[in-house]
UniProtKB/TrEMBL annotation:
Species this chain originates from: Pseudomonas amygdali pv. tabaci
Lineage: Bacteria, Pseudomonadati, Pseudomonadota, Gammaproteobacteria, Pseudomonadales
Domain HTH lysR-type stretches: 6-63
Stated family: Belongs to the LysR transcriptional regulatory family.
SUPFAM superfamilies reported for this sequence: Winged helix' DNA-binding domain
Name used for this protein in its record: Transcriptional regulator
A molecular function GO annotation: transcription cis-regulatory region binding
Swiss-Prot/TrEMBL keywords: Transcription, Transcription regulation
Classification via Pfam families: HTH_1
Highest taxon, organism lineage: Bacteria
Length: 134
């Protein structure tokens, strides 16, 4: 039997629809068509091997499979979002020390200051050492 790999985008649509109480609202929030959300839910039910919803009067309610899948989907999406945050916060760390003649160092610093792009990972320290050798 081939292993099933759930699609996180499909799980996000499922969770959003359940939380909003409407898959039309989920489609709007996720910038998808309602037919795309419907196709995703059919795919998810096929992967789960069981219906996710049952009729409860005029509304839909989650089946036992739907409840289990909802809980795991929330956990997986939370871990996914946490991973994205952790990876995006990684920054280069450490120091690069460069030595220049005073005139060139001033020009280099002016180029960096005039740059239209911010350089949040750049920090400079100016240390002027004048050494005269006789």
């Amino acid at each position: 039997m081939r292993p099933v790999n759930f699609d996180l985008d499909v799980m996000r649509s499922f969770v959003t629809g359940v939380e909003l109480g409407s898959f039309a609202k989920a489609a709007q929030k996720l910038a998808r068509s309602t037919s795309a959300i419907s196709a995703q839910l059919k795919k998810l039910e096929a992967q789960a091997g069981s219906p996710l919803f049952k009729k409860a009067g005029r509304k839909l309610a989650l089946t036992d499979t739907g409840e289990v899948l909802l809980n795991y989907s929330k956990r997986l999406l939370s871990l996914n979002d946490e991973t994205i945050t952790a990876v995006s916060e990684l920054k280069l760390k450490g120091w690069v020390r460069l030595g220049f003649r005073k005139t060139w160092a001033v020009s280099c610093r002016q180029c960096l200051d005039d740059s239209p792009e911010p350089t949040p990972m750049f920090e400079s320290r100016h240390v002027l050492h004048v050494m005269q050798i006789c």
